[in-house]
Write a structure and sequence with these properties.
Number of strands of chain A: 13
GO molecular function, one term (chains A, B): precorrin-3B C17-methyltransferase activity
Protein name (chains A, B): Precorrin-3B C(17)-methyltransferase
Largest interface: A-B, 75 and 74 residues
Number of domains of chain A: 2
Number of helices of chain A: 7
EC number (chains A, B): 2.1.1.131
Oligomer: homodimer
Structural class of chain A: alpha/beta
CATH superfamily of the largest domain in chain A: Tetrapyrrole methylase, C-terminal domain
CATH class of the largest domain in chain A: Alpha Beta
Largest sheet of chain A: 5 strands, parallel
Strand content of chain A: 15-25%
GO biological process, one term (chains A, B): methylation
CATH topology of the largest domain in chain A: Methyltransferase, Cobalt-precorrin-4 Transmethylase, Domain 2
CATH architecture of the largest domain in chain A: 2-Layer Sandwich
Order of helices and strands of chain A: EHEHEHEHEHEEHEHEEEEE
Distance between the termini of chain A: 51 Å
Strand order of the largest sheet of chain A: 3-2-4-1-5
Enzyme class (chains A, B): transferase
Chain lengths: 241, 241
């Protein structure tokens, strides 16, 4: 049996009871070393298999092999396992197995929700989530989504905004969105949301600071009704008050 | 102090530790009666103010007034308070107060995440969330978002798909999406996700059954790469396997 466990943004308090229970009930814990380090106190008596970034396929194959041997395995994702996490890959690999393994997705709080809570209430209306990583998605697809999402006036949550290898992507993304997102649209930037070293910033779209952002940053761009009030972003739901 | 608490989809196991702690630490619990009934065992010793649907503004004003009197108040939302929940409204009302109240958003698992976990891994790539309720959003805005989101090939999560007063909206939404969503695109339907009476269905886009859906249903429509494997929907992230 394989449990795909989303541990939420990082601090214990944001985990679901189901995630804690699933980890407690497993024999083996498999995950990227950064996420493993966030739950070390929970897994002291467990077999732990941790590896590096970009070793996702190996990690999921190991989990399937262990499950075949009768082990209960927890594969750890940050946030929610079903949102840019490991759930899909395990299901994909399992389709190719003759001896299918049982898989259960354990729900967690994803980064957009965590960052939104820090920023006030920026995602109170229709929203979309876009990853700027073009490791596995052609950049022209990402550009098209940025353009159409802006035209649709969605609140836009940007995952994986900026790595060392692609420091210009975020600036390009803002140039595309600028066709429809006004200069004063609120933008929330949350680094390490829900972790010990969390930092948050609120700026206007035209004053976006790209240098603040890295791969551990969530960026939330408001819609036409969003506004800044003190140190919070509010996107009205539409109530007449 | 006002805690905007998202209790997740319903069952206790999907709540975050922070949500349970916030409720325990509050003097008064304010919420829509259906959500209050889901946490009754947690709030036995609390003052409880519950009211009907469409009384959201009253509910949030009551919370602000109680906070002014020095009470710790928890305002309960289903799912996450920041996603079509009560967080925005309390912040909006608080901007008009002379004596501003402190507000804290307590993160929860929203319905799209909960339904995705039931369906397998349908939201592994860029996605958007659209509410079909036109009580507070003009229908032409909703139509525009459905069209552009489909054109962008987002995985689309539909909130509030169908009420008695607007039984045709969902059918109209599917007609709009049909311009870009292929006939065989997987569609997941989860009623009462994460509650005792959960039901789930997976169909092809062309075989959508609108009668299955009500206001407690989450609908997830895949992207061009999504496929059905057994009783699960998988949206590939893009790994070469």
């Amino acid at each position: 049996m394989i449990y795909m466990v989303g541990i939420g943004p990082g601090k214990r308090e944001y985990m679901t009871l189901q995630a804690i229970e699933a980890i407690e009930n497993c024999d083996v814990i498999v995950g990227y070393k950064t996420y493993i380090s966030l739950i070390e106190d929970l897994i002291k008596d467990k077999e732990i298999i941790k590896n590096e970034m970009r070793q996702e396929i190996d990690r999921c194959r190991i989990a399937i092999d262990l499950s075949k041997k009768g082990k209960n395995v927890a594969v750890i994702s940050g946030g929610d396992s079903g949102i840019y996490g490991m759930a899909g890959l395990v299901y994909e690999l399992n389709t190719k197995e003759i001896e299918k393994q049982e898989i259960k997705v354990i729900q967690g709080v994803t980064s957009s929700i965590s960052a939104a809570a820090v920023l006030g209430a920026p995602i109170m209306h229709d929203m979309c989530q876009i990853s700027l990583s073009d490791l596995m998605t052609p950049w022209n697809v990402i550009e098209k989504r940025l353009k159409l999402a802006s035209e649709a006036d969605f609140v836009i949550c940007i995952y994986n905004p900026r790595s060392k290898g692609r420091s210009d992507h975020l600036k390009k993304a803002f140039e595309i969105m600028a066709e429809f997102k006004g200069a004063e649209t609120p933008v929330g930037i949350v680094k390490n949301s829900g972790r010990m070293n969390q930092e948050e910033y609120i700026v206007e779209f035209q004053k976006m600071n790209f240098e603040l952002c890295d791969m551990s940053t969530m960026i939330i761009i408001g819609n036409k009704e969003s506004y800044i009030d003190g140190n919070k972003i509010i996107t009205p739901r539409g109530y007449s008050i």
